[in-house]
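Q: What structure does this chain adopt?
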Amino acid sequence: MAAYLIRRLWQTIPTLAGVVLLVFFLFKYFGGDPAEILGGLNASPEQIDAIRQQLGLNEPVWQQLWIFVQRIVTFDWGQSWATNEPVSSLFASRLPATLTVMVPILLLDVLLAIPFALGVAYVRGSLTDRTIMAVTTIALSISFLVYVIVGQYFFAFRLGWFPVQGWSDSLWTNLTVYTPLPVLLAVMVGLAPQTRLYRTFFLDEIGQDYVRTARAKGLTETRILLKHVLRNAMIPILTNLSVALPGIFVGSFLIEVFFSIPGLGREVLLAVNRSDYPVIQAVTIYIAVITMAINVMTDVLYKMVDPRVVLK
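A:
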């Protein structure tokens, strides 16, 4: 296992290097002149040249790339161009709010979608199965923005169960007061596609020969589903989760904007509007790193859920 992890981590280096080069050259040649953005419309040529000198933009390209790599390794991206706040401090102060929203969404998505899909697979072909599939198809056709508008109007304004906006320094207050509504809406959006997909995984396994053999041995349908089908279907489920995790992280950005949550996502969108390059570059690189780390962890989980998997 240790040797496999070392090899997998070593294999991520070329991918990460490609991401770093892509981000560097995209921002350098297609993102506009940082000195002109910082200087503003009224800056004189002398002021713009001084800014370029300060940022090291007059240095050779390879030296600018080396500075960029040093920032990644040292987590020192300098200061935000918009707020003049250190980017590292910005990450540290905004990330907890993002995790407070994202972690419950991820956990509820998994804890609800898997047993729900397993239950639908159990009653496959019945009226209940067809009804649930029709409802999930309709749910998939509705934009997330509609869920937000209707959810805020119904649960917040009409019923008064949740506040529409707000945040505090208390984790417990945030979890019990401010995050339930956005988490509820995000889970409602994610539950429909996950249920349909996981149901397909379970139905594929139910049609395998080992299931017919288990039935011939007299095992109950419930035992077959929980002990055999669920375990064998975990491989594609884990694959889907590894792909969806970065999407959940990015999707929480929209939630933070709609509900005015002071998280990293809202800060990133503000940085895009302000052309705040240090913040955008840092988020882009670190999301790539997180995605690669998730892929490595998923490979390890394959072995844990299915001993037949051989890590080479």
